[in-house]
């Protein structure tokens, strides 16, 4: 399958080449023809499947094919600012090669509204926004949605999951009834189903679940105190060019990043309390290689899109199975292979083992437990010894750092060094 055979115009074919895409991904092959034909589309696609281009390309092609009109003529709603920024960026890069270069406006919350209002003064053809800020702009008469011909809901499950349902309905109420609607979602819970039923007219359904991202999942049992040394060893040995390490809090993110930095790793940090500028800088640093390990919280990493991420490490487990899917989906994108490593700590406050079992159950996949030589968990090993599961005690004479860290974690454990 080629982009040309899907009906893309020569200018967009050139834009696609400039993006470095050789052939369409599965969701692009399936979505381009019906979107170009003006049909509504409901696409079940994981992040990383190439879904942004799957709607951006045909949307732009349809836009430039008909005479200019006051805009916005297309509205893309995204759940997070990161996703909105990335989507607008792709749209702008693609649009740059078109004759009547469509203007792409971008709006998201958490920053001053004034520059966004100013930017809209000259009008726009495509509006990419998070729902809350779009409503603010509408309240300020920054734009009208009366001319919208095409609506895209990106990551609809997250849009609904993040409490945007009411805001979404308020936006939808302002859209003209006659329009094309495209809904992309990684999962299809009842709320998304209801939204699809409300929004879409005889949609073409696309489900590309048969081509999941190629992610090798690993679950490593170790003690909490061993996580940092184990992570350092993995980073050194695995040959990952770029890795994303997930933690549960801003505090841990800073801590882990600082410790890695102190050990000579090119570490960066991404969490919700960073300024927009700082986030942009660290993402740029990850892209250009000056940061190789990004330590992030879930909030900050939503919708994050980094090419060629070799590995995701769950330094701390995510709260929900949905977050797990989302986290590990940051690697193995667009046909590349990736590794997702989860640390399972028997001595963590929550019961990590049963929590991870729940995650496995939800995703319908079992991940074999492993131990890293030199980092075997004391708590679990002791228990196994008691039941005859582990034979020798020689593991106690391992490296210095193991002893050090084990000593820290030793309160409550019985064995003596
Ligand atoms: P998305 O699912 O839109 O987040 O895209 C995931 C990644 O796939 C992005 O980094 C895109 O640059 C990349 N990508 C999208 N389409 C293609 C394609 N046809 N060939 C290669 N990479 C692609």
From TrEMBL:
Gene3D superfamilies: P-loop containing nucleotide triphosphate hydrolases (3.40.50.300). It is an enzyme of class 3 (hydrolase). Residues 363-417 are annotated as: Disordered. Residues 1-29 form the DEAD-box RNA helicase Q domain. One of its GO terms (molecular function) is hydrolase activity. Keywords: ATP-binding, Helicase, Hydrolase, Nucleotide-binding. Residues 32-206 form the Helicase ATP-binding domain. Its EC number is 3.6.4.-. A motif (Q motif) lies at residues 1-29. Residues 363-373 have a biased composition (Basic and acidic residues). InterPro entries: DEAD/DEAH_box_helicase_dom, DEAD/DEAH_RhlB, DEAD_box_RNA_helicase, Helicase_ATP-bd, Helicase_C-like, P-loop_NTPase, RNA-helicase_DEAD-box_CS, RNA_helicase_DEAD_Q_motif. SUPFAM superfamilies: P-loop containing nucleoside triphosphate hydrolases (SSF52540). Residues 230-383 form the Helicase C-terminal domain. PROSITE patterns: DEAD_ATP_HELICASE, HELICASE_ATP_BIND_1, HELICASE_CTER, Q_MOTIF. Belongs to the DEAD box helicase family. PANTHER family: ATP-DEPENDENT RNA HELICASE RHLE (PTHR47959:SF13), ATP-DEPENDENT RNA HELICASE RHLE-RELATED (PTHR47959). This is DEAD/DEAH box helicase. It comes from Pelomonas lactea. The lineage of its organism: Bacteria, Pseudomonadati, Pseudomonadota, Betaproteobacteria, Burkholderiales.
């Amino acid at each position: 399958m080629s982009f040309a055979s899907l009906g893309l115009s020569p200018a967009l074919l050139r834009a696609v080449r400039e993006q470095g895409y050789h052939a369409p991904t599965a969701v692009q092959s399936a979505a381009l023809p019906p979107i170009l034909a003006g049909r509504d589309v409901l696409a079940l696609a994981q992040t990383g499947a190439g879904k942004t281009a799957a709607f951006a390309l045909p949307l732009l092609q349809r836009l430039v094919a008909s005479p200019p009109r006051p805009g916005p003529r297309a509205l893309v709603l995204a759940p997070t600012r990161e996703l909105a920024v990335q989507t607008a960026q792709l749209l702008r890069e693609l649009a740059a090669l078109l004759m009547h270069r469509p203007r792409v406006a971008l709006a998201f919350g958490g920053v001053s509204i004034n520059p966004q209002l100013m930017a809209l003064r000259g009008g726009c053809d495509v509006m990419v926004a998070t729902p809350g800020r779009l409503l603010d702009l509408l309240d300020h008469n920054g734009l009208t949605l009366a001319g919208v011909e095409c609506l895209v809901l990106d990551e609809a499950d997250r849009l609904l999951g993040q409490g945007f349902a009411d805001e979404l309905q308020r936006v939808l109420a302002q859209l003209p009834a006659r329009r094309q609607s495209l809904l992309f979602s990684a999962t299809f819970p009842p709320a998304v189903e209801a939204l699809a039923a409300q929004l879409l007219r005889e949609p073409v359904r696309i489900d590309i679940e048969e081509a999941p991202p190629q992610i090798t999942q690993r679950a490593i049992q170790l003690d909490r105190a061993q996580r940092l040394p184990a992570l350092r060893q993995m980073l050194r040995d695995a040959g990952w060019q770029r890795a994303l390490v997930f933690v549960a809090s801003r505090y841990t993110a800073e801590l882990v990043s600082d410790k890695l930095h102190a050990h000579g790793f090119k570490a960066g940090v991404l969490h919700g309390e960073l300024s927009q500028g700082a986030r942009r800088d660290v993402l740029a640093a990850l892209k250009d290689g000056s940061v190789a390990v990004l330590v992030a919280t879930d909030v900050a990493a939503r919708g994050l899109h980094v090419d060629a991420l070799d590995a995701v490490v769950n330094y701390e487990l995510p709260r929900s199975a949905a977050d797990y899917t989302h986290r590990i989906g940051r690697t193995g994108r667009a046909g590349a292979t990736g590794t997702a490593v989860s640390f399972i700590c028997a001595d963590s406050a929550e019961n990590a083992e049963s929590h991870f079992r729940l995650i496995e159950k939800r995703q319908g996949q079992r991940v074999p437990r492993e131990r890293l030589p030199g980092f075997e968990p004391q708590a679990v090993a002791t228990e196994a010894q008691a039941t005859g599961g582990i034979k020798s005690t020689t593991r106690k004479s391992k490296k210095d750092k193991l002893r050090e860290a084990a000593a820290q974690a030793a309160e409550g454990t019985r064995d003596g060094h």
